[in-house]
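Submission checklist for the structure archive. All mandatory fields must be present; incomplete records are returned to the submitter.

[x] Identifier: Na+/melibiose symporter-like transporter
[x] Organism: Zhongshania antarctica
[x] Residue count: 409
[x] Sequence attached
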Amino acid sequence: MRNPFRSWQFIRYALPGLPLAALGLPFYLYAPLWLAEQAGYGYSIVGLVFFAARMTDVLSDLPAGAWIDRHGSHRALWLGAWLLIASSALALVYLPHPWPLPLLAGGLILLMLGWTGITVPWLALPVNISFSALDRLRYNSSREAMLLLGTLLAMVLPAILAPAMLPLVLVLLLAVLLLTVCLQGSQAAPVTTRIIGFRVLLADQRLRSLALPWFTNMLANAIPGTVLILFMREVLHAESELPIVLISYFLAGLLGVPFWYFLARRIGTLWSWRIGLCSSALLFSFAALLGEGDVAWFIAISIGTGLALGADQALPSAMQTALAQTLSKEQGGAAIGARMFALWSMLSKAAMGLAVGVSYLWLGSQTDGAVPPAWAISAVYVVAPVALKLMVFLMLGRRSIVAIEGGGQ
């Protein structure tokens, strides 16, 4: 019989994912365009300011992880990070624009630092509160399901609410985030006096072996997101159907999480992830055959690849948790979880930045300033991610990665 207290532990851990995703999607998708057009900064200024803020964000991951491992993730940390997010977000939305550029950059940097202050200890928490492979799977699957639910909420709310209501939704989501952050504080990791440096972590062959496929897979996921609007507009000629495509994709991802959870329980996390990679690559490859008027087929492909999304998120995170637990035991109980997940976070952000650069450099090389041809867009949108995912599948066959799955028991 399932213990209801244990079930509540998994739900409690996952809860911040809903407001984080619901707040994060508008910030990354809509805020730059709104600041450039509605707030009057212009595209170049917004691009420069966001680049500076993003670079600061990337560089903050490792120091944040080291600080958390040394001092512990107490409620004061969660509340301080929330305060940075809330004050910056409310100021950006409610105060009149334009601001002086240093003030705008400072507001964005504080917002991103607050985000890091919540996400790094939150991602690392299963290292300290999971006690078996099943626990790791449950915590990470619950988190990804809640993140997907929050993403869907962020897509649906603008469609059903009047624009004047959206700033009030921001306040409500910040309040929900505060509540869920307070719940996390009661299960924060204890402080330990044993600390090891990043050099020891990076010297571990298992960590290096897992880092490359993780980065490559994040790059494969980020490239389609970078050029999705261009693909919808120039290849399918169906940009107006973008909301349906996105909702179909993320809803399928949410519904697919239980399948990958039960599959991983039967055949293991690693093989389940590899199956997810192959199925995603196979289904997505058919998008290269699409053209004008094929939006229905594209929605079907989005649903199929969305079902594989759960394998792409929860399963590698469970392996990362297992590796962190193994390394901690080997180092005499040293606190390393936050630094390891800060490293994974940094690699993810670097992959997102590289995806933009690689995609647009390729598209720019295929045109003289006009819109790139459909074949070039399809190549970067479909062929590159499929090839990268197949590479990840091969990388995951290495013996040092196979050893990770059973090491955190």
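[x] Structure attached
Curator remark: The CA atoms of residues 239 and 358 lie 23 Å apart. The mean pLDDT is 87.
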